[in-house]
Amino acid sequence: MAKKIIVIGGGAAGMLASLFAARAGARVTLLERNEKLGKKLYITGKGRCNLTNACEKEEFQRQVLRNPRFLYASLAVLDNFGMMDLMENLGVPLKVERGQRVFPVSDHASDVGRALEKALRTAGVDIRLNTRAASLLEKDGRCRGVRLFNGAELPADGVIVCTGGVSYPATGSTGDGHRMARDAGLAVTPLLPGLTSLHTGEAWPGELAGLSLKNVALRAYAGKKRIYAQQGEMLFTHTGISGPLVLTLSSLLPQELSQVRLSIDLKPALDDGALDARLLREVGQNPRRSVSSIMDTLCPHSLGQTILALGEIPPGLPACEITHAQRARIRGLLKDLPLTVRSLGSFEEAIITRGGVSVKEINPSTLESRKLPGAYFAGEVLDVDAVTGGFNLQIAFSTGALAGKSAAQAEA
Ligand SMILES: Cc1cc2nc3c(=O)[nH]c(=O)nc-3n(C[C@H](O)[C@H](O)[C@H](O)COP(=O)(O)OP(=O)(O)OC[C@H]3O[C@@H](n4cnc5c(N)ncnc54)[C@H](O)[C@@H]3O)c2cc1C
């Protein structure tokens, strides 16, 4: 007899779980609280859906920030190249861009969502929209189905929880799966916004809001320990900093932010000596110009003004009158512009949720709960996350695929 499987949540993980369970012979019902499937998928990659990354296996594992080894079996069932084949077979041609990021050729995330939905219907999945699961039904130590918010009970041989994290809650991910896990006695690690902007303790970034910087180095220290050092792009916002370097950093910060110190190196290609020589050259060639216009040769105007203000150097000072100590302060700020972190950007704007159902509670070979057999967890609801570049969607697709396959083929 075909197994009856219920999948809770019709996002990236839930769609793949449903597809793989149905293709493995199960009768699948997919419950989605929204009026359509994959609401978050439609806004990924700024509406273009960076669905995966075409890097090799070792590189993929390196980009996973938490619990990469937990993913071995999931990636064995469906890795990034398998996902690319699957999409192309569903009629969605793909392209690879900078950083091996994979997008649909059409640049429309909706093509990915629609193709997956069509595949689900072809595989015979019973899709129930506007249907919100409230809890897992438990009997004799096993998960036996789902109770809906309207009180209805749906029996099943296996239930796959794919409710996502708690970021961008307007898309439907509000932590229902974490509650279901806790109710079943499963540990959930602390939830934090990930891949998000940072609010700084200092107000001056707000004066530079909108200014983006290329080829700068961002370093972060927790106490004396350096926890991050990367070169790339970042930008200032009304309340702090954001941009690619900052998003990745946000996912690496400790929960306790008071010990964290940030440092921006605006001239990573120049050491202190080379930078001083550059400054002296500018001063020597333009002795009558103001220090403000000397700064304009080194960095964007508004940032130069900020550096002078932080260094307490009058912008109108003639270059020939800059003292040795003032020059040292300018160099110091160009190489080590300090910032502190007041808080992480909110869940409303965070691209992912850090933390989730503890992977210690889940068998990595099947994604079944060790404490509540018959219940499976896949996607962002789990305590697994990665940097930007298509890795988070691939984690959802891969864990969804494994959970679907194993639930359909389970012995009990
Ligand atoms: C703005 C933005 C852009 C992003 N861009 C990218 C990108 O380009 N590439 C990338 O790899 N990652 C990207 N991500 C991250 C990626 O979208 C997520 O990691 C991924 O969608 C997680 O998939 P999921 O299926 O686990 O969860 P979700 O996509 O959040 O899906 C969960 C689903 O479960 C439903 N649900 C929740 N509770 C219930 C319930 N009780 N009953 C029924 N249904 C329920 C929700 O409505 C939702 O549809 C982006 C995220 C955001 C917010």
Textual characterization of the structure:
The protein is an alpha+beta fold and 412 residues long. The protein folds into 2 domains: 4-192 and 352-409, FAD/NAD(P)-binding domain; 197-345, no CATH class. Helix content is 31%, strand content 25%. The chain has helices at residues 12-23, 57-63, 72-77, 80-89, 109-122, 176-183, 204-207, 244-250, 272-285, 291-296, 301-310, 324-335, 391-409, and strands spanning 4-8, 27-31, 52-53, 64-66, 94-97, 101-104, 126-128, 133-139, 142-148, 153-155, 158-161, 192-194, 198-200, 212-222, 225-236, 240-242, 260-265, 337-344, 352-354, 375-377, 385-386. It has a 6-stranded antiparallel beta barrel with strand order 13-16-15-14-17-18. A hairpin with a 2-residue loop joins strand 14 (212-222) and strand 15 (225-236). Helix 1 (12-23) runs parallel beside helix 5, helix 1 packs parallel to helix 13 and helix 9 (272-285) crosses helix 12 (324-335). The chain is elongated and about 90 Å long. Bound molecules: flavin-adenine dinucleotide. The site of flavin-adenine dinucleotide has 39 residues, from helix 1 and helix 13.
